[in-house]
Design goal:
By secondary structure, the protein is of the alpha/beta class. The chain contains 16 helices and 14 strands.
Amino acid sequence: MPAPVLPILTYDGSGYKSFVDRHISYRVDENGTAEIYKITNEIVNDVKNNGDQALFKWSAKFDCDLIDASNVRVSQHEIDEACGKVEPELQKIFCKAIDRIYDFHKKQKTNGWIDTSANGEILGQIVRPIDSCGIYVPGGTAAYPSSVLMTVVPAKTAGVKRVAVASPCGRDGKIPPVTLVAAKVSGVDEIYKVGGAQAIAAFAYGTESIKKTDKIMGPGNSYVMTAKRIVYGQAGIDSMAGPSEIAIIADSTANPVFVAADMLSQAEHDARAKSVLFTDSPMLAEKVSYELVKQTKKLKREKIISESLNQNGQIILTDTIAEAVELANAMAPEHLAVCTAEPLGLLTGIRHAGSVFIGNYSPEALGDYMAGPSHVLPTESTARFFSPLSVDDFVKKTSLISFSKEALERLRKDIETFSNAEGFDAHANAVSVRFE
């Protein structure tokens, strides 16, 4: 894989959305998407209809042939064993991160309310946590204990009683120790050694070994995301997370070493990760391009980074920072870093981003691990209508209505007229019968 030398593309004034669609947005492979759906649908329906038999069949094909009903759930012995393999200092860091994540998310909690009036009306809203959730934690090329913390802690903060985690095991039948320790210290109730679409189906429909859950959260590959789409309605889901991405708005005051490092921190996720710089400074653009090559050579995941930047990396030169902001809004990135002389002044113009990182000393990696807000964020422009994972994802709201006879009578004629206008005379009768 050649070194990532990014050409500098100049914004041509063709329209922000049009420019982003042509040069930055992911290209959809219709044939590939159809094939993924076909395979995923087969897996999901197999698990739905055949339970454990299908679950372990697909697990054997994709992950490990050692998993069955006797060991699919991680035992206390395995958790204790994992704790002995993870450095105490790292375990302390997990606990510190949990404290910060909890402190942030407890501020998101809202209470129900009830309004009473002298005329016999009571209206209100009841806020309660969902009973259970299944959280998917990716495996494969890396372990993701941070994903455990960033999903489980908001769930527990919301008050969810049963939090189950599913994560693919290796060929040895084991989940990485760091993942198990993160699950333990964050308060997970159940951990299962299953991955892929079969894990999502198990959470949605239940099997002999895994009880169904009310909602399914967490990132994953294309098959996991497709499975979440298929089971939606049977279970709730969070959002449809795609490849990781970062956009950076920077001017001539930005440090090119910092900017390049932030772009590389996203590129190392996988080859589909996207890293984009918007700047009004030709000199900064040149320096960042140089730094990307220089720093990539020193990193362990050089091959993945180079592939990511060559396929999805962009440096966009604009006339003004205002143009850079509007291009970022059109992209609606998962992560948006602002490295300008007056970064806070740009906040009012930023409308679409999963998480915004302000200033030279707020790297995206801070948000991934220790800042406090969940790092489960909307991707692929869905920040236009989705929000970061929060306590709200783990609660549901119920409306409360109580009227006295006198209060109902005051609205009787309005309801009868309204319902008859819609052709629903049984609705009108349900009111009028109370006064006959």
